[in-house]
Specification:
51% helix; 13% strand; Tyrosyl-Transfer RNA Synthetase; alpha/beta; binds tryptophan; 7-stranded mixed β-sheet; 21 helices; 399 residues
Length: 399
Amino acid sequence: MENDKKTTDNEEDSQVVNPWEVSSTKKIDYDKLIDQFGCQRLDQSHVDRVKALTNRPPHVFLRRNVFFAHRDFNEILDAYERGEKFYLYTGRGPSSESLHLGHLVPFMFTKYLQDAFKVPLVIQLTDDEKCIWKNLTVEESKRLARENAKDIIACGFDVSRTFIFSDFNFVGGAFYENMIRVGNCVTYNKVVGIFGFTGEDHITKVSFPPVQAVPSFPSSFPHLFSGKDNLRCLIPCAIDQDPYFRMTRDVAPRLGYNKPALIESLFFPALQGETGKMSASDANSAIYVTDTQKDIKNKVNKYAFSGGQDSVENHRKYGANLEVDIPFKYLSFFLEDDEELEHIRTEYGSGRMLTGEIKKKLIDVLSEIVERHRTARAAVTEEMVDAFMAVRPMPNMFN
Ligand code: TRP
């Protein structure tokens, strides 16, 4: 018994996933995360329903199970089927000047959801969060929020249904009232249980979770949703954000509010291999949206962890290990063509395709995405940022 317990503890120790840390000595065990967090797996029936309800092909991130977990997603789809709309809520903590591909994943997906369901979207820039956790100055954090807003806008959001806000600029009024309502439902012991705060943590950390919680409630945005207190909220995010929304869902009924629904993604792995999400501090662990084609080529060729064999002879004989191969993993996120991906799976997996060939394919695919983003980002003006961030009604947001 003693021994069994110990093994379990060690296994538990090898994987840490919370909003501030994602690390693991092995590949992240997503099944275990689903169990631990208490969310549900997304399955083919959801993909089929989305396809039928929106009358368009499901996004590649849905087809490939990049968004793999959910909470109450069925209820959103049921409501939508009855003719009720909902709104989307996502966000970003602006901790770095430029984004990497992993940062784009939730925004690309949210853009698709917005277009497919024709619904409004609120995007929270938690500039306050990054002052609290990353020791950025208030001024620097605000500057980064505005820079990041440009990258977000470059993903193609529709200004007639998208409100982007920074916490430092927007928190107050009805939003703040909801923060206090939420905070009054959560004890110190409870946040310690959910987030693992200790007595050494600054009090700003303890008081932050309501800030990320309340955009889940329509009444936090009177300029958008006044009189629509029952409007449902769907949050697309990476699964490390789940603790915030577990807390939110826990308190919602006590406040007479709907629980937000969630649709949650895998982490986009580092070039070096799949043991966690990419670290913004190691420039060689990720492809940035500011990387040149030459950077992309170098990084993929030099750092992308390969499941190919060590000699051509062995590779032809045994084939590549697709389970650990980063070029294949990245292509499964970003290569749109299902047939081509299947072709690569069989050819590379059997050893007929070589590592150099799959890497070349990946370089082409990523270069195109990054180039497209660069062009879109360059076209984003200060006036456009102001337009997205203006506190304004959006009369056509459901059309
Ligand atoms: N905490 C998130 C981050 O550090 C930012 C964020 C705020 C967010 N609200 C969100 C992310 C809602 C997803 C959904 O990046």
